[in-house]
Design goal:
Layout lengths: L3 E4 L4 E4 L7 E6 L10 H19 L3 E6 L6 H10 L3 H18 L15 H13 L3 E4 L2 E4 L35 E6 L17 E3 L1 H13 L3 E7 L3 H16 L4 E7 L2 E3 L11 H9 L2 H7 L2 H9 L7 E3 L1 H25 L3 H4 L20 H19 L4 H21 L8 H18 L19 H18 L3 H13 L2 E6 L2 E6 L1
Parallel strand pairs: 3-4, 3-9, 9-10, 11-12
Antiparallel strand pairs: 1-2, 5-6, 6-7, 7-8, 13-14
Helix pairs in contact: 2-3, 4-5, 4-6, 5-6, 9-10, 10-14, 12-13, 12-14, 13-14, 15-16
Length: 507
C-alpha cells in the first residue's frame, strides 16, 4: 500500500515519495508567542503529530520541526502594553504553549527552533538574495522583488499586487506594491532585544524569511512536507517559496499540506478578532482554560474526528458530542477489563505489521468471526490513513471495531456464563484496537476517573448508592430507584446496569 497526500501546490493527490527514500522531513509553522494560544492553534500540532506517528508506524524515519516566532511586530506591541520585555513575554507564552502540547499528547516534535536564535542563517539567505538581484535595500530595509520571480503566486494562484495590506509593516520605499520585507530597519523607540546587527544596519527579520531559514537549516534546501493552516497559503507560504527557491535554485518543499480553519460558534458573528465579543470568546477558548475543563484526549479526539483539510466547527455542543463518542470506547475498555480482570491498555503494544503494511489485528483471536471483524476494520483504518491521512475515516473504523468486540461479548454471553477463551479473545481484540489507535495518538493511557479525594471517597459513596438502589429494586420500589438514577444523571453521573453488576461514570 502507498500513502497519497493532497498537495496544495499541484491541487491534487499524489503518492508520497520522499526526497530521501525511507525518510520524511516535516516543517510546521508554529505559534507567534505574544498571546496565549487558543483551540485553533492546537489543530495543526495535533494533526501533524498524528501524521508523524502514522508515518513512523509505516516504517519512515521522520524529522518534524515546529518553529517559534519570537521576533515579530505583535510581540513588540504586546510587550509594551504589558510593561515587560519581548524576551520575558515570549518565554512565558512559549512555556504555556508547551504545557498544553504535553497535555494534548503532542510529543513528536523533534526540533523547536526560535527565530531569535537563527539571525545568522536569516542574514546569510538575505545576502544571497541581494547578490542575485532578487532583493534590494531601501532605507535600511531589504525587500524581495516579486517581479523577479517568474512563478510567484504558484501556490495560492494569486497576483503579486494582492499582497498589499498584509502583516509586514515597511518603512522604506518599495519598487512594487507586492514586494515584502526580508529585513526591517530598527525604529528609534523599539527595545534593544529586537535589534540585531546586519550588513544593512540594526534591525530584525521579516516574518516570512524566518521560516525559510529555519526549515532549510534543519531539513535541507529541499524537504518533503510543509504544513500549516489554510490562512497561511498567502502571503506567508507563497513568500517562503519565492525567497527560498530564488535563493537556492531548487524546489523548497515537495508537498504542501494545509489544515482547515477553526470556526468559532459564538452567538453573534464578530466583525473581527478585535471585536470585544470575539476577544472574550477567544479568552474562554485559550488552551489553558479549555484544558482546565476538558481532558487533553477529548480535545485531540475532537480535532482528529474531522478530516484535516476540512474546517473544524468549535462549540461546547460539538465538544460534548465528541465526548459521547469517546465514552463509547472507554465503556468498551472498562467492560473488557471488568470481564477479564486485566487492562487492555497494558496488554496493547505496537500493531503487528504483516505483508504490504497490513496489520494483523486478529492475531491471537480464536473466534473466526471476531478475528475477521478485527482484520476488516484494521484494513479500513489503514485505507483511511493512507488516503491523505483521513483520521475521521480511521476513527469511524475504530468505532466499528469496538462494535464487533461488544457483539462478541453479548453473543458469547461473557458477562454471565461465557467461556474463558471468549474472554481472552475480547481482551486480545481490544488490545489490538488500542494499539491501532495509538498510531494516531489515541488511548495512550487510561483516562483519569473523576473522584473526590485521593482515597476514592466518591467511588465508595457511589457503591453505597448503587447498593441502596439495588435494594429498592428488589423490593419493587422502582419509582425511588429511578429517582436515584435521574438525580445522579442531572449531575452528569451515569449508572449502567449490566449482567455482572452496576457501574458508574462521570460524563
Amino acid at each position: 500500500m502507498s500513502i497519497a497526500v493532497y498537495n496544495t501546490l499541484t491541487r491534487q493527490k499524489e503518492p508520497l515519495q520522499p526526497v530521501t527514500p525511507g525518510k520524511v522531513g516535516i516543517y510546521l509553522c508554529g505559534p507567534t508567542v505574544y498571546k496565549p494560544s487558543h483551540i485553533g492553534h492546537a489543530v495543526g500540532p495535533i494533526i501533524f503529530d498524528a501524521i508523524k506517528r502514522y508515518l513512523v508506524f509505516r516504517g519512515f524515519q521522520v524529522t518534524w520541526v515546529v518553529n517559534i516566532t519570537d521576533v515579530d511586530d505583535k510581540l513588540i506591541v504586546e510587550a509594551a502594553r504589558q510593561g515587560t520585555s519581548t524576551v520575558e513575554l515570549a518565554e512565558r507564552i512559549t512555556a504555556d504553549y508547551l504545557r498544553a502540547m504535553k497535555t494534548l499528547h503532542v510529543d513528536g516534535v523533534d526540533l523547536m527552533p526560535k527565530a531569535s536564535e537563527h539571525i545568522g542563517d536569516i542574514v546569510a539567505i538575505i545576502q544571497r538574495l541581494v547578490e542575485r538581484g532578487v532583493a534590494y535595500v531601501s532605507g535600511g530595509d531589504v525587500y524581495f522583488d516579486v517581479t523577479r520571480d517568474a512563478d510567484y503566486g504558484k501556490l495560492s494562484n494569486r497576483r503579486t499586487d494582492e499582497q498589499e495590506g498584509q502583516r509586514d509593516l515597511q518603512s522604506g520605499e518599495k519598487r512594487n506594491p507586492g514586494d515584502f520585507a526580508l529585513w526591517k530597519a530598527a525604529k528609534p523607540d523599539e527595545p534593544k532585544e529586537v535589534r540585531f546587527d546586519s550588513p544593512w544596519g540594526s534591525g530584525r527579520p521579516g516574518w516570512h524569511i524566518e521560516c525559510s531559514a529555519m526549515a532549510m537549516r534543519y531539513l535541507g534546501e529541499t524537504f518533503d512536507i510543509h504544513g500549516g493552516g489554510l490562512d497561511l497559503v498567502f502571503p506567508h507560504h507563497e513568500n517562503e517559496i519565492a525567497q527560498s527557491e530564488s535563493c537556492t535554485g531548487k524546489p523548497f518543499a515537495k508537498y504542501w499540506l494545509h489544515n482547515g480553519l477553526t470556526r468559532f460558534n459564538t452567538k453573534k458573528v464578530a466583525k473581527s478578532d478585535a471585536d470585544p465579543e470575539m476577544q472574550a470568546a477567544l479568552v474562554k477558548m485559550t488552551l489553558h482554560n479549555l484544558l482546565a475543563v476538558y481532558p487533553g484526549e477529548l480535545i485531540r479526539f475532537f480535532v482528529l474526528s474531522t478530516h484535516y483539510r476540512r474546517p473544524i466547527e468549535y462549540s461546547e455542543a460539538e465538544i460534548e458530542s465528541k465526548r459521547k463518542g469517546l465514552d463509547t470506547f472507554y465503556r468498551t475498555f472498562e467492560r473488557v477489563e471488568r470481564l477479564c480482570r486485566a487492562s487492555p491498555y497494558t496488554q496493547a503494544g505496537a500493531p503487528q505489521s504483516g505483508g504490504n503494511g497490513a496489520v494483523q489485528a486478529g492475531k491471537g483471536v480464536a473466534s473466526a468471526t471476531l478475528a475477521s471483524a478485527c482484520e476488516e476494520q484494521a484494513a479500513e483504518f489503514l485505507r483511511a490513513m493512507d488516503d491523505d491521512f483521513n483520521t475521521a475515516g480511521a476513527i469511524a473504523a475504530l468505532f466499528e471495531y469496538a462494535g464487533a468486540i461488544n457483539r462478541h461479548i453479548e453473543q458469547e454471553k461473557l458477562e454471565t456464563v461465557g467461556p474463558e477463551a471468549g474472554k481472552h479473545d475480547a481482551l486480545t481484540a481490544t488490545a489490538g484496537l488500542i494499539a491501532l489507535a495509538r498510531t494516531i495518538g489515541l488511548f495512550l493511557e487510561p483516562p483519569e476517573r473523576t473522584t473526590a479525594g485521593t482515597d476514592g471517597t466518591a467511588d465508595k459513596a457511589m457503591q453505597v448508592l448503587i447498593m441502596v438502589r439495588q435494594h429498592l429494586r428488589k423490593k419493587k420500589d422502582f419509582e425511588t430507584a429511578d429517582l436515584i438514577r435521574n438525580l445522579l444523571a442531572e449531575h452528569k453521573i451515569t449508572l449502567e446496569d449490566r449482567p455482572d453488576g452496576t457501574v458508574w461514570r462521570c460524563e
